[in-house]
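A protein record pairs a chain with a discrete description of its three-dimensional fold. The following entry can be read in just this way.
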Amino acid sequence: MNRNSVYQLSARQILLLAFASALIAVGATALIYNYGRIFVAKSGADVTLAEQAPPQGITDPSQVSDEQNSIEVYRAISPGVAFINTTSYQQDFWGDVQEGKGNGSGSVIDADGNILTNFHVIDGAQKLTVSFGGDKVYPAKVVGGDPDTDLAVIKIDPPPGMTIVPLGDSDKLVVGQKVLAIGNPFGLDRTLTTGVISGLQRPIRARNDRPIDAAIQTDASINPGNSGGPLLDKYGKMIGINSQILSPAGGSVGVGFAVPVNIAKRIVPQLIQYGEVRRPKLGAATISAAEVNNRGYRLPIENGLVIQRVEPGTTASNAGLRGLSQAVNGGIALGDIITAIDGEKMNDLDDLYRYLDKKQIGQTAQFEVYRGGKIVTIPVKLLGTAPSVRSTRRFE
């Protein structure tokens, strides 16, 4: 089957202060509800996203029927769901230009016109347009993309009164709760499907084979064209970004996957600020010890990441980590085997990806390394330098 992908005051002064505070509170509440702007907390260059208030127009779900709740969520949120059209151009052998077209979905996440979608929706596109129903079409540009999490941000010049899709909290989800998906399957704009969360913590992979942890599984129908659209809870908050389906025939069979919105909260600020995600890189080619042992070689330990080669100027080389080398007798001398980082076991490259994805450049990690017959702990400052030379082995 295929997987399609935070002095003394007088009484009069106290009253004035209270009145001013009330005005500020009312103004802040209006801003949250009407504009749904990104919550920004700056610390140096840091920008963060936070959970947002529910949209207006959605009654407390416990006070209305399930049908009415679906109607209200769709009515409130669908104007903020973008229909993304992509165009790419390729020259064939004869010099003729071939035009390719595609489409997907996205969610308006702020009043600046930033739209969250999947990376695979916009990957390779030379032209992007966005519509929200009707005949009006907006040209769009790519702000940034992250193939590792299959997330991207595009931007349009925002028209007045844009509907913002508010962000929820994917860490609070439970299996069985109602979800709604809005998207543009097969070019049918702003289609609503409903279902439940079928599973949590599902491991899926981006198209570049990187693991995307803790994906949300749902039986709400997701089809080609739904990619990048919001998966919503009954309060109208986005809790996931629809990304993949598991299907033998390319259509929905009730097994869809969404990237948790909390991953987007971590990724999107960097995409807006830098156009990319700046992650720490180890700068070493590695292979799992289990794989080496399974090939018939005898390593001194069963599990870990065998360092094959270290690139100069990287995290690994600056920390003094060692790769394979030539022994005096002409054979291969074993270097370091990473067994754990900050207490997290490192059994394969996916474990390393997951760990580094959650860390920031400049942080120090404690590497537990098998070296010279014993386990040693090495403090390692995480850098962002990527290897300059590609190997037949995967680098991180």
